[in-house]
Design goal:
Elements (H helix, E strand, L loop, with lengths): L1 H8 L11 H21 L2 E3 L1 E4 L6 E3 L2 E3 L8 E5 L6 E5 L5 H27 L1 H4 L4 H34 L2 H5 L6 E5 L4 H25 L23
Antiparallel strand pairs: 1-4, 2-3, 2-7, 5-6
Helix pairs in contact: 2-3, 2-7, 3-5, 5-7
């Protein structure tokens, strides 16, 4: 309870940092991070085609959703050499790249929230020593690297998902036996990859402004220290 009281008593709201690149870019990171993991994590879609190998055409509509473990998604497929239908499964498991991307987004969102509270309410604590900006620089650099890796992996995974759910792939050599009614809408997933690489640019670029807050960066306008024996002129 005493720790909470100290934290509340030390809070001093100051919106000034938002007007500076350090705080403004962090707000942009917070927004684009939400877009990144929300567009990927909440996705569900389906592809729709009609099989015409019998007198009565049959509609086939495989459905899939996050985390894209397609091998668990079943659908009914008619067999052209008989009147029966069989349970068929989509192929592929892209859970690892999808969950990795979303996890990076969620943790980045939490870190943005934490640092924004620190910037706006505890700026005096943040700048009190060099350890705050230095730790911020290291974590921001790590997240920039994670955005690079996760966005690249998720982009490759998305390409494989498009192939695995394409009716041309699902029907194989029976291309004359079906008609595509609707391809799966991938615009939302394409946007998630774009948001991922936008986050990479934001987080990598923000490293420079955080670096300027550390003791490694010297202000070029700061007066040079006087050497022993130097006396000011009259």
């Amino acid at each position: 309870m005493e720790i909470v009281q100290r934290a509340v008593s030390g809070f001093a709201l100051d919106l000034g940092p938002i007007k500076e690149p350090l705080g403004f870019i962090r707000v942009l990171e917070w927004v684009f991070t939400i877009f990144a993991f929300a567009t990927a994590g909440g996705y569900s879609g389906s592809t729709h085609f009609t099989v015409k190998c019998h007198e009565k055409p049959m509609e086939v509509k495989p459905e899939f959703w996050y985390p894209f473990r397609l091998a668990d998604r079943s659908y009914l497929m008619p067999t052209c050499n008989s009147t029966e239908v069989e349970v068929t499964y989509l192929q592929g498991d892209f859970r690892s790249s999808a969950e990795f991307f979303v996890s990076v987004g969620v943790f980045a969102f939490l870190y943005c929230t934490l640092t924004l509270v620190l910037y706006l309410g505890y700026q005096h604590v943040y700048r009190q020593t060099s350890r705050g900006p230095l730790a911020d620089l290291v974590v921001t650099g790590v997240f920039a690297f994670l955005w690079l890796v996760s966005s690249s992996a998720w982009g490759k995974g998305l390409t494989d998902i498009k192939f695995a759910t394409n009716p041309d792939h699902l029907m194989g050599s029976l291309k004359d036996e079906y008609t595509v009614e609707a391809y799966a809408s991938m615009g939302r997933l394409n946007a998630s990859v774009i948001f991922g690489f936008l986050n990479l640019i934001l987080w990598a670029g923000n490293c420079w402004f955080i670096y300027k807050e550390t003791h490694f960066h010297k202000d070029p306008n700061a007066p040079a220290p006087m050497q022993e024996g130097d006396l000011p002129g009259p």
